[in-house]
Structures are given as structure tokens and as C-alpha cells.
Amino acid sequence: MGEKIEIKTADGSFAAYLAKPASGKGPGIVVIQEIFGVNANLRAIADGYAAEGYVAIVPDLFWRIEPGVDITDQSEAEWAKAFDLFGKFNADLGVKDIQATIDWLRALPGIGKVGAVGYCLGGLLAYLTATRTTIDASVGYYGVNIPNLLGEAAKISKPILLHVPALDQFVPPEGQKQMADVFGPHPLATMLTYAGQDHAFARINGAHFHADAARSANAATAAFFKAHLS
Questions:
Q1: Active-site hit among 163, 199, 210, 228
Q2: Domain span at residue 199?
Q3: Does residue 60 have an active-site annotation?
Q4: Which CATH number is 195's domain given?
Q5: pLDDT in tens, 74-83
Q6: Reported pTM
């Protein structure tokens, strides 16, 4: 079990869920939320990283709109709320809050390198984290809207891994081709495509969850972080 902490910035304070390994120290991982807030799924992901020896933290990136959002994808009402929050969300400010989270982690004793992993909205933010922050390595799962921001790829200075489902309803084939054209030759980028998979194939209990694809993506992520954060 983790704990709730507060991160103070010039813009105000926001909450985050912090999970530490038994040793209390290790490389850091910023887990970047989907459109459902800091929910049980994201907290479980952070707990999993802590069990693997990482200091994992999930910042509440919706705090400027509505602090403490914690919903699921199991009802129409929750989906409506999630998309409303997504429409109001400012990605530029979200990346600013991610940098504040990175800085907070690095101020802890015993923290080494810091990575980031994000899902859906968080997948986009993981990409922008790679282009705009001091992160050491980033992983994005089915990030949305990346094709519209490929001009930022030239600013990637640390390794990034992107998991892209071939049938992602939010990133059509032409967008995926644009991504492949940019990330394929990029020396610091790896883009893995999952045939037959739709958006959120790694979200446990989600409509498109696929155990084998999720297992494959998560194994690639684990190897990526071991290589770049150790």
C-alpha cells in the first residue's frame, strides 16, 4: 500500500499517490493517469512498480479542474465525466506538473534516474514528457493525439518506447503511419505495434483488455526501464 502526498508548486499544491519498495529507495517512476484520474488501476500499477524496486508516484493531473478524481470505465456516467475532464484538460500545464513531480522525486534520498509511463491521455503526456522535461526514459501506451505533435520529436533527448495498437479507434492508420515515419528512424525512439488490438488493450477489466498483448507490452516496458534506469 502506498500513501497520499502533496507536491507544492508556484501554481498551488496537488496530491499524488506514492508507493515505495521495501528498501525505501530506488529509481523513480512517474505513472501518468488516463482520463479516469488517480484510480485503483493506476494505484495498482504504482504498487507493482514498487514491488519491483522502483519508487512510483501517480500525480493528480486533474487537480486544476477537479482535485481527487477517482473513477472507472465501467459506466456511461463515468465515461461522460472522463471525457468532460479530458476536454477541459490543458496538456501544457499537465507537463509542467509532471516536471514538478520529477523534481519532487529527485529530491528524495536514494533516488536514481527517473522514468515515466503513461496510458491513453497519459500516453500522450509521456511523449511530451520526453520532449519537454528532464525525464531519463519514457513509455507511452496508446497515446492519443501524438500525430498532431510530431514536430516535437526532434526534441527527444532520452529514450522513449511507444506501444501502439493497430486498431486504435483514437489513432487511425494514417496517424500511425505518420508516427512510424518519424519514430522508426529516430535513434532514441522505439515504436511497437500490436496487431488486432484496440485502444486500452492493457487496461485490466477494460472492454478491450487482451491478456497476451498486455503481458507482451508490460514485459517490453520492464526491460526498457531496466536498461535505461538502472
A1: 199
A2: 3-229
A3: no
A4: 3.40.50.1820
A5: 999 999 999 9
A6: 0.97
